[in-house]
């Protein structure tokens, strides 16, 4: 078996407009497609990140994340960046709280975490 790459990551949000603003206007992800699925009363927003995608879904009353971040399932989403200090500075300017930058003991690379509007942990990892 050979897996080529991650095609997409799906995220369910509680406030579609707030999450759309966060991923599009703060993280600057490109909108590929947006549709409203009337039968499900749900939006689906496809966003491009490099050669992968994030699918942002809205559903009525989705259950909250059961614990942070050790709930079974997706632990966090990670974006590779060229300069972590610049990205952290921009996020702070936009009012996004970011943890202190740490050094990965195994690779020596810088990394940090912040949260999306639904408290999904997002990691930044410097190339």
From TrEMBL:
InterPro entries reported in the protein's UniProt record: Fosfomycin_Res_Enzymes, Glyas_Bleomycin-R_OHBP_Dase, Glyas_Fos-R_dOase_dom, VOC_core, YwkD-like_dom
Record key words, sorted: Metal-binding
UniProt cross-references to Pfam families, sorted A to Z: Glyoxalase
UniProt xrefs under PROSITE patterns: VOC (PS51819)
Top-level taxon: Bacteria
A GO MF label: metal ion binding
VOC domain ranges (all copies): 5-127
Protein name, entry field: VOC family protein
Organism: Romboutsia weinsteinii
């Amino acid at each position: 078996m050979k897996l080529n790459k991650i095609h997409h990551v799906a995220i369910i949000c509680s406030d579609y407009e707030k999450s759309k603003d966060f991923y599009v206007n703060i993280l600057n992800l490109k909108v590929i497609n947006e549709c409203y699925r009337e039968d499900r009363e749900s939006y689906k927003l496809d966003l491009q990140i490099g050669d992968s995608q994030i699918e942002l879904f809205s559903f009525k009353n989705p259950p909250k994340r059961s614990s942070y971040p050790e709930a079974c399932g997706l632990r966090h989403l990670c974006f590779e960046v060229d300069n972590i200090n610049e990205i952290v500075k921009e996020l702070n300017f936009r009012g996004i709280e970011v943890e202190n930058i740490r050094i990965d003991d195994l690779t020596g690379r810088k990394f940090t975490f912040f949260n999306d509007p639904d408290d999904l942990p997002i990691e930044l990892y410097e190339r």
